Amino acid sequence: MESTKGRGKLVIIGGAEDKEGDCKILREFVRAAGGTDAKIAILTAATSEPRESGEDYIRVFERLGVEEVTVLNTIHKDDGDDPKNLEILENATGAFFTGGDQARILEYIKGTKLDSLLHQRHKEGMVIGGTSAGAAMMPDLMIVEGDSETNPRMDAIEMGEGMGFIHSVVIDQHFAQRGRLGRLVSALLQQPANLGFGIDEDTAMIVDGDELTVVGRGAVTVVDESDATYNNLDELLKDEAMAVCGVKLHILPQGFRFNLKTRKPISLEISKKEAESPVLQTA
Amino acid sequence: MESTKGRGKLVIIGGAEDKEGDCKILREFVRAAGGTDAKIAILTAATSEPRESGEDYIRVFERLGVEEVTVLNTIHKDDGDDPKNLEILENATGAFFTGGDQARILEYIKGTKLDSLLHQRHKEGMVIGGTSAGAAMMPDLMIVEGDSETNPRMDAIEMGEGMGFIHSVVIDQHFAQRGRLGRLVSALLQQPANLGFGIDEDTAMIVDGDELTVVGRGAVTVVDESDATYNNLDELLKDEAMAVCGVKLHILPQGFRFNLKTRKPISLEISKKEAESPVLQTA
Known about the structure:
Number of domains of chain A: 1
Structural class of chain A: alpha/beta
Shape of chain A: globular
Largest sheet of chain A: 9 strands, mixed
Oligomer: homodimer
């Protein structure tokens, strides 16, 4: 496995994060990116309303004291190779992907110079944040679209290539709010060794090396199908209900941590011991 | 544990079962209750529109060939002791509880002569069916009401006494359609040794002794928290997010079975061997 040493954190948000109140999650994104000295590049590729979405985030990041906040223009196919965009990102300490449609992020950015530079800067320590579509696109393989509020079915989801900032996981967003257990369980079918993360609204997982910490109002549901059996796949037609036995779940709220390598929540004792220190100082 | 030998089946339906098409689930209820010779008592206590609901079920049961279908009047507090109602039930081979509000079933029937007679007739072989509220009320302890589409929280659900036709389980309905994983996980907190069953719409679990079989379009999600740990209960205020680690899930569609004593899905091999025989002839 590729080393994650020296890489920037990933702030992966389940959508609908607070932008008006205490901005708990965006605050942690800014802090990870360098606090008031942060230089933040906003990527609006996912949304069909880039101006509005960009302005929203400029407003909140400026309110939190960041002086350099710039929206990258990614409205034409060749904007991903635009030297102006590359120059901004070259100096950024944090890149933030707005919500929208994750397929648009891939369409506008995947394979461009911006894509390479995002990965390079991330390896050098730049923090990458993303909400909703900006969360879904993080892994190698992402949920392109799918049905909410359904039991697992082979045709419940469409998977596709993601941006590859994190490996061997699948991420779903608006998790509890849109009833997406069946969708996430279905998504893991293609690669059961992967871990599934269902992130609630106004909730984030902050990935730092091999460990993640949960921040926000809801929870992150970890779905582990590595020991699961799919009992009726041979016989299934496309729209029929999948049988999945032996799925393991962990539901982790604010302050809880999870180790991506051991596939285990951080034990009760350690969590308790650390409960007094601020969430992000978990070494 | 009380013996379940000789008891009638329980047909526990997640709501919104098909009443216009092939009526797969209601058909199995009727078959279990004696087919065209069935004598069915409809209990509308849960609904504030007993006449409409009663007539709906009379229509569908008659369409399936049942000649004796009677609605029990339970609109006044003392209807539960009404000799007319008791006489009907005395002769019934199947009792069917409509949807509505499960608290009304308890209010009108619990502790009445009808309650005792329902349990007695069930022990003698009478089938009991129920949909939605009529499913929720089946266990000793039921979800009275609760929030859908939430992560687990201590205040997500209100539990209360159920009708006690099945022991050591909690039943939730409209499961995938209303995103009720968090609610069911929360409901098991009071008795983690119990099994949780989340039944999708137009889906049922048919309990026969220690075994259940799934019928219908969706799935039954079995939530087993017997090995789970609740990691932050000591510190939680009422509206804060619960941490639950090590929950086991089985998602079982049509034809799949589960043993309530061993707490295990019936193994792949056995299921396959029996896949050719009709669902309900699983001995």
